[in-house]
What does this fold into?
Amino acid sequence: MKANPAALATAMILLLAHPCGADGARIYDDPPGWENPESVTVRGGELFPDTPFKGTFQSRSFFYTGRLDNGIVFIINLFHWTYSLFNQWGITVVITDPAGRVYKYEGSLPERAKTDPAEGFDFHFGPNLFEAIDGGCRIRLELKGFSCDLVIRSILPPWKPGDGWALYTEKGDEYSRYASPAPWAAVSGRMNVFGEIVSASGQCLWDTCLTVQPLNRTNSLIMVFRAFGRPDSLESDRMFISAMVTWTSEKYGPLPVPMLLVAKAGRWVFTTMDFAMSPSDWAVKRDPPLPFPGSYAVSAADRGCSLEGRFESSRMYHSMDVFESLPPFLRSIASVFLKRPVYFRLIGSFRGRLTMQSGEEIELDLPAAGEYVILK
It folds into this structure.
């Protein structure tokens, strides 16, 4: 009997309050870092982690998601995976605009990268580059149907959750390392998409992750949304919210891996792992025929502040069955041994109330975008 994804998500939310993870697992330890995000320091090797390949599956990702002032929502994900004797660089770009148009690109990149992860961030693939600059990075892409020249500059300084390590086993040989070179950043530059050249002024998040674990132990569920301040808001009023709950493979428990980031006017309000996030308003589309949530309710209290609100989707703009992007022969092999990740990407708004330590209550109505990822 196959599990209903909606029921699975609900059960996992209940477990979030009473986790029953694998013995010896440690998820983003270091309470002082969570309690005082201003005190967090992140060194170069932590920002762009790498480790020698030891025979299991290993992946690295450099992920950007944001909203431009003209209403365009974008995802750019540069990644590298290694398995057995095989490895490959790849890139995913997904963009939607207020008119409902969607651009997507998924492809491999030639092995012409130059990098020294312990020292910095510098990847070149022919005309495509990702390189560190003072206070951020530059992205230049020339893809079929899309090009861009973007500059990402930090609004908030680099950050990591706790010690940056999610250790899934007592031995610590299966894990993820997470950091954010720019948890909240300003974007500038240009994009050429939908046959138009547009300004790329806006806001985004940039994070990095290294994961080492067997292929049959990948994450079982991800719920996430990010909300950015409106472009016409005063800088002193501009907000940023990122809420994410990842659930590990059931073979680890499963374990919840939650993180909530709240910032205002370029400063942290609070960061926490202790919050509630529940999905609702389920819907099913024809392809793929799986339920996905239309909203996430969030509530949290930390450092004398509190947040209550709801992300509500106005449109599911992109879905992707990862196996469908594989060559047919690989798809047949993978389907025998592995479950397939299915992505649903949503656009909408976050409405709620933030109560500051001073007692000031701020009503929120922010443009936002989210994702829901399930294994089938």
User: Anything to note?
Assistant: Residues 217 and 249 are 5 Å apart (CA to CA). Confidence is low (pLDDT under 50) at residues 7-21.
